[in-house]
Each structure stands twice: as structure tokens, then as C-alpha cells.
Amino acid sequence: MYQLLIVDDEVTIRTSLANYFPWEQEGFEVAGVCEDGREAIAFIESNPIDVLLIDIMMPHVTGIEVAQYIYENKLNIKVILLSAHGEFSYAQASMRVGVRHYVLKPTKYEELKQTFKEMREELDRERTQKGKETWEDADVIERIRNYIDENCAKASLEEISELFHLNLFYISRLFKKKTNMNYMDYLTKVRMEKAKQMINNSDCLINEICIQVGYSDPRSFSKAFKKYFGVSPRECRGELSKVKEDDFYG
Q1: pLDDT 10s per residue in the chain (250 long)?
Q2: What is the rounded CA–CA span in Å between residue 149 and residue 210?
Q3: How far is CA 52 from CA 39, 43, 151, 190, 238, in A?
Q4: Are the beta carbons of 30 and 18 closer than 8 angstroms?
Q5: Intra-chain end-to-end CA distance of the chain, in Å
Q6: CATH dotted code for 185-249
Q7: Which residues of 140-150 are buried (b: 16+ CB within 10 A; e: fewer)?
């Protein structure tokens, strides 16, 4: 069910709209009823709303002003204006703030039904597209993470941008959005974890490990390792040797 807010300063109109139209059959649920624009904005700020059905002319804050508030704050809310014939010029002005849907007053059942049928279809399409984009984005990020895991020594945003045919700034923003980590933070994590694994499970020299995880300068590698784990690579290997020695001698 899509959430609907109804706003009109005439009590008979808002009550009739809320109670005498089969909203559930059309895929909507009346989340609230307000008597003016100020009350509508307060409701919107604290409740998730998909569609706003609002009278265009009201005292204090008009329907267009509420639509402008939604537009300026980039809220994902569809606005349907209730407009009398004499107010159509106002309705045209509202197009500048993203309003594309109108219902004439006095409201006719069939017109209201058709408007909300089209609105539900529009919302369904957007929800489907959003779900598809979310899945595709998640798939891209998973493939990028796999690439970093396997190629941390050479992975860079520029290389990944060319490999996946995506803008590097887009990759950076998307990576942060989907993983809650910056790209460089994730790359550092992979490099440090791999370095520690090699220190623990191989006889490679520290300088060799440094190169294999993507660092050309041993000092930079040692500094990054200590910042990540709290000990230097040599201290980490020394602690491991001490543990092994203790285990050997019981």
C-alpha cells in the first residue's frame, strides 16, 4: 500500500475524501488528514508519505507552497493538487515545482479513480526500476570488491573505472553508499589483512610482503600496518614467533 496524505481546509471535503473513496482497492492507505499547509508540512516531516492530495488554495500556507517545500527538499513525494476551475493559472505555476497531477473541484468519483489508477501505475514503475537499479548497483559493487580482493597490489580507481566502464567519481560515490566505506579504506583493509596473513603463514621477508600487497615504500607500508593493527609488521611477526615458541615448550 502506498501512503497518502489528504489536505483541505474544508472539513466536509477532506472527511469525504478520506472516508468515502475505496482507497485500498486502488492500492493506497490514508496515512493522515490535515486542515492546512502548515499542518501538512509538519506531518510530512515525521511520517513516510508517497502521495499528497492537497487543496491548491488555503489560508496561511497554500498547496503550491507545500509542493515547493517538497521540491526544494528533494522529498520523494508525488503531489496531486485539488484545483477549482478559476485556479487553473495557479495550477500551471505549480509545474515549476514538479507538480504534474491535478483533480478538479468539485471532485468527481471517476476522475479521482482514474487519477489514482495512473498514479499507482507510475509508482509501481518507479519502484520496479528502483529495485532493478539497486540490484544492478549491488552486483557491480560485489564484482569490484572481488576484483580488489584478488588484485589489491595493483587495484586503483582509474583501473577499475576502465575495467568496468564506469566513471571513477560514480564508482567512488556508489562504493561508499553500498558498503558504508570509502574505496581507499576498503583497499587498505584488504591490503593489511593480506599482509598480516602472509606474515603469519609464510617466510617471506617484510619487504617482499610490502611489494606483494601494493606498497613500493617499506616505510609507508610499516606506518600503514601499525596504524591499522597497532603494531609494526616486525613486531607482529615477533609476537607470532613468541606464541609458537611458547606452544612448543608448553
Answers
A1: 999 999 999 999 999 999 999 999 999 999 999 999 999 999 999 899 999 999 988 888 988 899 999 988 888 899 998 887 555 566 566 666 667 788 888 888 999 999 999 999 999 998 887 766 666 788 889 999 999 999 999 999 898 988 888 888 888 888 998 889 999 999 999 999 999 999 988 889 999 999 999 999 999 999 999 999 999 999 888 765 443 433 322 3
A2: 16
A3: 13, 11, 50, 47, 66
A4: yes
A5: 66
A6: 1.10.10.60
A7: bbeebbeebee
Length of the chain: 250
pTM: 0.56
Handedness of CA 111, 113, 114, 119 (dihedral sign): positive
Cα 138–chain centre separation: 12
2-107 — its CATH code?
3.40.50.2300
β-sheet with 101-105: strand ranges across: 28-34, 2-7, 51-55, 78-84, 101-105
- Can you tell me which residue has the cell 507545500? 66
In angstroms, the CA 31 to CA 29 distance is 6
Q: Hey, is 58 helix, strand or coil?
A: coil
Phi and psi based region of residue 60 (left: phi greater than 0; alpha: psi -120 to 50; beta: remaining): left
Tell me how far apart the alpha carbons of residues 171 and 247 are, in angstroms, rounded to a whole number: 47
CB neighbours of residue 199 within 10 Å: 20
